[in-house]
Structure formats: structure tokens, C-alpha cells
Amino acid sequence: MTPLKNRPALAMLPLSIAITLALMAAAPQVQAQSLVDLYESARAFDATYQSAKLQYDANLARAEQARAGILPTAGLAAGVSRTGFDNSNPAVDRSFSTQNATLSATQPLYRPANWATYEQGKKQVDLAKAQLDSAEQDLIVRSSQAYFDVLAAQDTLTFVQAQKAAVAEQLAFAKRNFEVGTSTITDSREAQARYDLVIAQEIAADNDLRVKKIALDQLVGINGSQPKGLLAPVNLPPVLPADVNSWVQQSETLHPSIRQAQSGLDIAELEVSKAEAGHKPTLDATASYNVTRNPSGTTTSLTQSSSRTNTSNVGLLLNVPLFAGFAIQNRIKETLSLKDKARTDLEGARRSVAQGTRTAYFGVLSGQGQVTALEAAELSSQSALDANKLGYQVGVRINIDVLNAQSQLYQTKRDLAQARYNVLLGGLRLRQANGSLSPDDLQQINRLLAP
Fold first, then answer.
1. What is the CA radius of gyration of the chain?
2. Does domain 4-71+111-280+324-446 have CATH number 3.40.50.300?
3. Pairing state of beta strands 91-93 and 307-319?
């Protein structure tokens, strides 16, 4: 912020020079970063996105666990025991030890429930990917929102400072005219009141800029981040395709919410298959090899010589369920209801996404119309200000008319700058609404930034 004690000098300068000085005072003193640069920083620093990415990694590992049900299992068991034997008639004290080891393996051959669980694991991967995509799109929008919030706050402060310089110039005119007797004290007091009001607006704008910069720094993990401004003049990109139904149709296959709901329905259908598998038999191939050794014989051996027994076994294990107390039937009813719920959730997601996409699409069109209207209003406001200043010099306009025209001009400039940022953000929100938003979409905005 330019110190207050330096403002009298601004009051003696022409309006164009005062605006230039105000812009220079607000110019960044550090290397500015583009939107893509700050997004990449946020991607590596933001706790919300990092949490979503770690959850995605955990979901991948959880889904991979489902393969265990269709793969073979093997185990090795070993043990040592000591057996004491004491007989009173005839008196025999015969104690011995036993050492054994067993290697076993099982390969599921027919287990419908295990295969359904394995297919669910693959659907869980799709679900986790959709959740991560949703978190990434949210980070893109949050980063862009924080980026343009800072630019809008900078513009507001710049325009307020320029308006302050213009009001100070008008205040100097009013005082000079009052001293020579060509105007009343009312003009000076009106200009002074407007100048004091602009001072308050400048303080508020400066604080708002500070808060917005803190929010951006916290998001991207960079102290003193400085976003690049838009090129002047800026050519806002059109909405393509220019058909809202095309955007809605894209959302059917792209939007993370719909993909999550679709994966949820697929998982629910497989859960029904798992429940129905409770009535079906299972078949496993088994194999085992056992070694039993008695170093000091056994109670039945005539001598205390050691013995060893090797046993191998290969076979098939068939398990046929007969009755489980109606648990399986009720489990099937439960999963059927959950499948219907998942189908309803999918339809609800489609309707919600379609409505959100249409709302975002027409919001961008409305924003573009506002930009066009405000650009015309800026030219009209500038013409009105010039006319009022000329009228004030020849005595057909009073000082308050000039001050009001100045206020209207700078308010229009602020609204126009904000409307342009809203259109750019609206384009990103439209792509988020239909699920097609990706980091590559930031490159288009990056090309609109000052080098």
C-alpha cells in the first residue's frame, strides 16, 4: 500500500499518471507463478489430496487381497512332544519323544463365492480410481479458485488506489476553486467525504488481499506465492461443444460420481452371486506330506531304537451344504435389496450430474454475457466521467456528479475483472460438473496469463 503521506503528490498529477503509479505500487516484487505451477505445488502439498491418494493406494492393496481366494495355499507345521508311560504290573517305565512335520497345500477348484469376491476386487479398483479422480478435480477447482481470488483482490486494491488518486485530484480542484471563489465549500466537503470513504475501502481491500494470499500459500505450500495476472486485453475461450446435451452425454461415462455408483451396482450384483453360492458345493484339491520321528522308540516297540514314518496324501475334498438354518436364503434377500438400492443410487447420481452440468453450462454462458455487457458499461462509464469532468469545468455539473461518475467507473472495472475470472472458473466447474476436468485444462488458462 502506498503510504498516506505520499498521497498529496498524487493529487497534483493527471489521472492517467496517478493510475499508473497505483498499478506500479501494486506490482509484485517476486517471481510470479502460473496457475499450472501453483497447481503442481498444491498437488504435492495439499493434505486433502494426499489423503485421497494414500486411500487409493490402500484400496488397491485391499482389492488385491481378493485374489487369495482363487490361488493355492500352502503351510508347514512342525512339533515336538514328550510322552511319559508308567505301568505297575509288570513294572515298566517307558517314556519317549515324538517329532513331526507336515507340509500341506490346497488349490480351490470350484468355489463360486471366491470367484465373485475376486471379481469384486477388480470393481473395487475402478471405484478407488473414480474416488481419486474426484479428489484431483476438486483440487484443480480449489487451486484455481484460490488463484483467482488473489488476482481479484489485487485488482480491487489497484482500482481502489486509482480511485483514491482520482478523488484526491478532484479534492484538490475543489479546494483550489473554492480559494479563488468559483465554487462553494460544499464541493470541497463532498470531495473530502468521498476521499475518506475511499481510504476505508483501501484498508478493507488491502486486508482482503492479505487474507486471500494466506489462503493460497496454505494450499500450495509456498510462502509469498504470487500468481500471474491475465493478459490485457484478454480473449475468453468459448464454450465447446456449444450444446448442453453434449456435455450431459459425456458425463454418463466420465463423471466420477456416476462411475462410483456404477461400480457400486456391479459390486452389489456380485454380492448376490456370493450369497447364492452358499447353496452350491465346493471342490478343492489337497496334498500333504507328513514325517513323524521317534528318536527313542515308542511304548509298543520292543527296543528303544528310533523310528521314522513318512506319509503322503493327495486327494479331492468335496463339501456339499445341506441346511444352514435359512441363513443363506435370508442373505440372498438382503443382497437383492442392496442391489436395488445401488441401482437407485446410480440413477440418482445420473440425474444429479445432469442437473449440475446444465446449471454449470448456462452459468458460463451467463458469465460471458455479463463480461460483454460490463465491457460496454466500462466504455460508457468512462465517457460519462469525461463528460461530467468537462461539465464541471464549464459550470454545468457540480462536484458530486464527477465523484459519482468516478465511483461508477471503478466499480464497473472491478465487476468486469471479477466477471472474467468467474467465466474462467466457470469453465473449469463445467468440466468438473460433467466429469471431464483434468490438469491439461489448466494449460488453456495458462496461455491467457501475462508472461
1. 39
2. no
3. unpaired
